Amino acid sequence: MPANEYTLYNSPLTVLCRLALPMAVCAALAVALLSEPPDSIPFAIIISGIIFLSAFFLLFIRALLDRRPQLTLSPKGLFIHTKFSETPLDGTHKPRKRKEAFYTWRNLGSPKLDPRPYMLTLMANDLPEFPEAPPPLPDNATDEQAEAFLAEMGRYVDALKKDMQAIENEEFYYLSLSVMALPHGKRLPKILQSLIDAENEAERLAIIQKLQYKS
């Protein structure tokens, strides 16, 4: 793993921990039912138990076998490797499936986690990064410096015009992806929010290196 990136992979142990409570309840019910005469156990309960155990087994095997990267946190942004849903908030609300997508931190916001299905949601926009204005000319600037400054200002104004058009056509998106098998759990939105709120790449790199040290 590069020193300036933190990649999250599926974790079988995480799946076990998150399904520990329902599995314990299922085991307790199984023990209680096994103590009863076989003819008194409803068939629907047996089928439900088989379905639940099969779902758990499939989740565990999937997390165990799938060692592909799922999310990568870098100082520049978030790379989503796995399949996720991107819904444009343009009135149609028609979700589209995406994979292998990159979003800069300045284009992301409001990370939240629904703990029941373990779905991570974020808001995103497509605004470009605004250019920085050229530094002012010194008082003793030469004619060549003044000419270069005017040319730079012309490019800056042109870039601003394009950015104003981008603002007028700005689009917002609602991102949703499953993080059932990923580590960090309820802390994941807080981690993402800290990277979104960081003022520069150096601060984000410090957060990422801290995560690497703890993992």
Structure write-up:
The chain is an alpha+beta fold. The protein has one domain (1-126, 171-215). Helices cover 44% and strands 21% of the residues. It is built from six helices and nine strands; from the N terminus they run E-H-H-H-E-E-E-E-E-E-E-H-E-H-H. The strands form two sheets. Strands 5-4-9-8-7 form a five-stranded antiparallel beta sheet. It has a four-stranded antiparallel beta sheet with strand order 1-2-3-6. The longest helix has 26 residues, at 143-168.
Task: Offer a few descriptive terms.
five-stranded antiparallel β-sheet; single chain; 215 residues; alpha+beta; 6 helices
Draw up the topology in text.
Layout: E1 6-9, H1 12-18, H2 20-34, H3 43-65, E2 69-73, E3 77-80, E4 84-88, E5 96-98, E6 101-104, E7 108-114, E8 119-125, H4 143-168, E9 172-178, H5 188-197, H6 201-214
Antiparallel strand pairs: 1-2, 2-3, 3-6, 4-5, 4-9, 7-8, 8-9
Instruction: Give the strand order, joined by hyphens, for the main sheet.
Output: 5-4-9-8-7
In terms of DSSP E residues, the strand content is 15-25%
Range of helix content: 40-55%
Can you tell me the number of structural domains? 1
Average pLDDT for all residues: 79
C-alpha geometry: elongated
Radius of gyration: 25 Å
Q: How would you characterize the largest beta sheet? A: 5 strands, antiparallel
Number of strands: 9
> What is the helix/strand order?
EHHHEEEEEEEHEHH
**Contiguous uncertain segments of 5+ residues:** none
Helical segment count: 6
Task: Please report the distance between the alpha carbons of the first and last residues.
Answer: 12 Å
Structural class: alpha+beta
